[in-house]
Every structure is written in C-alpha cells, then in structure tokens.
Amino acid sequence: MTAAFDGRHVVVTGGTGALGTAVVSQLLAAGAVCHIPVFDAAEKARTPFAADSNVRFTDGVDLTDEAQVAAFFSGVERLWASVHIAGGFAMAPIDGTDKSALLGQLNLNLVTAFLCCRAAVGRMRLTGDGGRIVNVAARPALGPRSGAGMAAYTASKAGVAALTQALAEEVAGDGIWVNAVVPSILDTPANRAAMPKAPHADWPKLGEVAESIGFLASPANQATRGALVPVYGRS
Questions:
Q1: Do the Cβ atoms of 205 and 157 come closer than 8 Å?
Q2: Which pLDDT tens digit goes with each residue over 13-31?
Q3: Is 51 domain-assigned?
Q4: Which residues constitute the domain of residue 127?
Q5: What is the mean pLDDT of the chain?
Q6: Is residue 4 part of a domain?
Q7: Residue 175: CATH number of its domain
Q8: How many CB atoms are located within 10 Å of the residue 221 CB?
Q9: 30-47 pLDDT, tens per residue?
Q10: Number of domains in the chain
C-alpha cells in the first residue's frame, strides 16, 4: 500500500477475519491507527496484531444493535475512515430460506453496513475534515442472476451496493467519499476447502483486495466516490 495514513484513525469491522486481517495489516504498515469492534473477545487471539499498540479492540460489540454501534463509534476520536467488512454468507434455494434466514442475511450484511455508515458519518462531520467509507458488496449484487441459489445473500449485498451509491451522493458535500469493493470468490483457505476443484489461481487474493480498500480509504483518494469497484481477479 503506497498511500500514507500518518496516524489517521480507521475503523475496520470484521477486522479479525481473513480479509479484515489483510486490510488491517496493510493499514498498520501505512501508519494508521486501527479500531476493531469484536463480538467475541476470543476473536482477537487469531489475529497477528493482537499486541500492536496501534490496534484498539473493543469487545462485545453487536454490529446489528444500533445503540452498541453508536457507543463504539463515539469512542473513536477524529475518525478518518471506516471500512465495513463484517457480514455473513448463506447459500440456500428459495424453498430452503424462511423469513428468519432472510432477515439474518439482511441483518449481517445490510443492517451492519447501514448502522456503521450512519455512525461514521456522524463522527466525521464532527471533525469537519471529511473522510472515507468503504463497504463490501459482492459480485452477485451487480449481476443478480449469478446469485441463483443464494437469493437472500444476493439481496442483502445488493442493498449494500445501493446504500453505498445513495449515501455517496448524500455526504459528498461534507467531503466524505463513500465507495464499495465488489469481490468475487476470495482466495481463502476456507473457500479452497469448500471448493477443492475450483480454479483457485483465478480468484482475487486477499492482499490485492486489501490494496483496493486501502486506496479508497486513504487521503490519496481525492476523486473516487459512489463507485462499486469490481475486485474479481481473473475469475
């Protein structure tokens, strides 16, 4: 990552997961101070930066809870960027998806992104310095026909894409750029294990996607807003 953060404060939800770890690692190398909400304190144990002084963990944060999200963000001074990776995936045909499963996907993907965007905008407006928000959609959000067999997930990620573009217009006057990356299947050990015969070499690598997120979240991004950036690799 070539963009410098120079001590700027960045929230990374899902910062203990595979993609989140790659993003946080690159942000730290670029000089950022990273704030990571975790629902289960044990999540910290699997990160390579649990003892890093520039990483601030907050335990017990349910990102689907409006009050808890607001309280978490209120503790971040001079927020510059907020990266929203937290979410969930479920694959099931429509007759295997009940209302509870649909609401679960909407909560994990769309509601968490919405609440974090809302809280981040409020904190950024307090500084008057603008800021950057990066959401994570998914390839089926841009081509819903490819979401057959996972309609609930596709709908939730399409909501994230729509939220990103609408909010980008709403807060442009505040100097807050809102964008989203749109990954295809990420090259992770879990995905390789789930799809052992897939063309793994074609999948986007975590470091590559983290680079795209890092640029969109950085002060170097002076022009890009409202973008849904495909990060497909060769897939």
A1: no
A2: 999 999 999 999 999 999 9
A3: yes
A4: 9-231
A5: 95
A6: no
A7: 3.40.50.720
A8: 18
A9: 999 999 999 988 888 889
A10: 1
